[in-house]
Every structure is written in structure tokens, then in C-alpha cells.
Amino acid sequence: GAGVSQSPRYKVAKRGQDVALRCDPISGHVSLFWYQQALGQGPEFLTYFQNEAQLDKSGLPSDRFFAERPEGSVSTLKIQRTQQEDSAVYLCASSLESTSSYYNEQFFGPGTRLTVL
Amino acid sequence: QKEVEQDPGPLSVPEGAIVSLNCTYSNSAFQYFMWYRQYSRKGPELLMYTYSSGNKEDGRFTAQVDKSSKYISLFIRDSQPSDSATYLCAMMGYSGAGSYQLTFGKGTKLSVIP
After folding, report:
1. Which of B22, B58, B78, B104 shows a CA-CA span of 20 to 30 A to A66?
2. Are B15 and B80 in contact (CB under 8 A)?
3. For residue A1, is pLDDT > 60?
């Protein structure tokens, strides 16, 4: 009965480095979401996958952010040439069904805390 | 103005008090209204969700939605130290770009003092 897991839990990067953050959703969950949570703020939507298809990337802040879910399970969020403003907690969530007009509960992982120096 | 406004607090109450948390929103298209609890260094966990205006009760928690005023509330009765956490309101609506997504408030940090 494992929940959503994320790794690493903490990441420190020097400005300009590339980072990769991993999310393991709950097995069998169709939908996967990435959120960015800055200090003292609520999570903000980044991108959404239905199986392996990235259906919505409207929240990605710049073209330095890239996400993939090639086999419809594990997902990776990659940030290239990190900047100090990228420092935040990156949360992954999964839900059993695809998004629709009715609510499907999203289950959140513990997040990866990224600090860019 | 953000789509969802929530007073970040912090809010400190004695054990046993009734806690009232609330959010306002501007987007009439929001259809579902949620409250999440987030402990330090953890991800948010769903407490309650409601679809329409009215009240929903679950144990010590009551959620209220007033769509005409664009105002939602969460009440916690007989608050316990274990309720100390950040409470996030969230609302679901169509993103216009292919999915229904959650829009969160800033969160209110609650401390229940023994």
C-alpha cells in the first residue's frame, strides 16, 4: 500500500546546474501532476500527464523546465540551468482516473526540496 | 489579485477551541472545493471536498461553501495539538489547456496550544 514517493527528498544545486527530480506514483494511477510550492505559498500547478501523454504543460514557468513520463508510470521533472528563483518544494501527485469535470482525489508525495545556491 | 485568497496567519488557539479557516475566490467556474492539511516537510493530504453550496461534516470537521459569495470555510471543533499544521484550500476548475486542475490558496498555519 505504498503512496506516492519522490526522490531525492532534498537537492542542493549550484546556479546553472541541471537537476532531475523523480516521482513514483501509486501503481495503476492514470493521472500524474507536478506542482511547485514556494516558501509560504500554496502549491502551483506545473504540468499534467494522462498515462504517458503530457496533456497540459501550461504551468511550466519557462522552457528550462521539462517533464516526461515515458512508460506511463514513473515521471521525471528536469530543470536546466537552475536559477535561484527555482528554489522551492516540487510536489508530485497522482490520481486513479484521468481528469474530467468531476473530482478525482489527488494523492501527494512528500516533495523534493530544491535549493539553488 | 490571485484567483484564491487565504489569510496565511499564523493562527494560534488553545486546545479545545473552535477554529475557523476561510478562503475567497474570484473564478465562478470553480466546481469543487477542497481542504487539505499539510504537516511540515510532508505533502498535502485531503481532508474534505464539496461540490455545491452548503455544509459537509466529517467528525470534528465541517466544510461550508457559499458559491453566491465565493466564500468557503473549514471549522474544526474541539481542536487538538495534533491539528497543528498548515491548512490549504483548493478549488478545481478547467485550465483551458487540457485538464481540470487544482488552484490552491496560500495556506493558513495553525498552532493548537496544549
Report:
1. B104
2. yes
3. no
* Residues A56-68: tens digit of each pLDDT: 999 999 999 999 9
Asked if A44 lies within 8 A of B104 by C-beta distance, the reply is yes
Nearest chain A residue to B91 by CA distance is: A103
Q: Which residues of B touch A109 (CB under 8 A)?
A: 43
The C-alpha atoms of residue B64 and residue A94 are separated, in whole angstroms, by 26
Question: Pick from B8, B100, B103: which is nearest to A40 by CB?
Answer: B8
CA distances A76 to A22, A38, A90, Å, are 5, 19, 11
CB contact at 8 A, A24 and A8 = no
Nearest by CB to residue B97, choosing from A50, A58, A102, is A58
A56 part of contact set with chain B, CB < 8 Å: yes
Half-sphere exposure of A99 (CA within 13 A, CB side): 26
The answer to whether the CB atoms of B97 and A56 lie below 8 A apart is yes
Question: Is B8 close to A93, i.e. CB distance below 8 A?
Answer: no
User: For A78, what's the count of Cα atoms within 13 Å in the CB-facing half-sphere?
Assistant: 9
The set of cell numbers assigned to B35 is 481542504
Question: Are A92 and A23 a contacting pair, CB within 8 Å?
Answer: yes
Task: At A76, list the grid cell.
Answer: 521525471
